[in-house]
């Protein structure tokens, strides 16, 4: 079976994440895309919504596309969520699956500083799309050659939304309709998430 992994803080998950996952499933002929929310990201500041809320929002977003599943494997571990540990655990638990790890070019700018990046390229196929104003040309010129060989680029339409923009709009009491799936928008409002965000 061919499965994809889309990890992230998902604080909150937004429509750009969902479109990327759904498009990747079709473009790469993947049976499923697993959304894997991080408990604690090593290279990011503390997350604002609790693990419980972020998993719940991912489950609601997954209803938007039949290929989407939610995997809370990183929520079960204490401490930072390292991609290599997650992918290794999934490979061991599902020996009949070929895994594809999805990431934007902006996220992969720091790939050389991830834990055991070479090991990640051995465990799964890495597919990237242009995101966050970082072109494939920029990324490929910055990644060390051994890592670059393990990264594959595909062209896909990416929505311009970011989680930080969603949080800021909520804190300013501005509409986020369309930026997140409707059920996620309702969840954010019902649970008063991000109302005190200043960044």
Please describe the structure with a list of short key phrases separated by commas or semicolons.
about 15% strand, Rossmann fold, about 200 residues
Strands side by side in the biggest sheet: 3-2-1-4-5-6
Please report which band the strand proportion falls in: under 5%, 5-15%, 15-25%, 25-35%, 35-45% or over 45%. 15-25%
Low-confidence stretches: none
Assign the CATH architecture: 3-Layer(aba) Sandwich
Overall shape:
globular
Radius of gyration: 16 Å
| SS content category | alpha/beta
Counting DSSP E segments of at least 2 residues, the number of strands comes to 6
What does this structure look like?
The protein has a single domain (2-190), classed as HUPs (Rossmann fold, 3-Layer(aba) Sandwich), CATH 3.40.50. Helix 2 runs antiparallel to helix 9 (182-190) and helix 3 (83-93) packs parallel to helix 5 (117-123). Helix content is 38%, strand content 16%. By secondary structure, it is α/β, with parallel strands linked by helices. Strands 3-2-1-4-5-6 form a 6-stranded parallel beta sheet, sandwiched between helices. It has helices at residues 15-27, 51-62, 83-93, 105-108, 117-123, 136-142, 145-148, 163-171, 182-190; strands at 2-8, 32-37, 68-70, 98-104, 125-129, 151-153. The protein contains 9 helices and 6 strands.
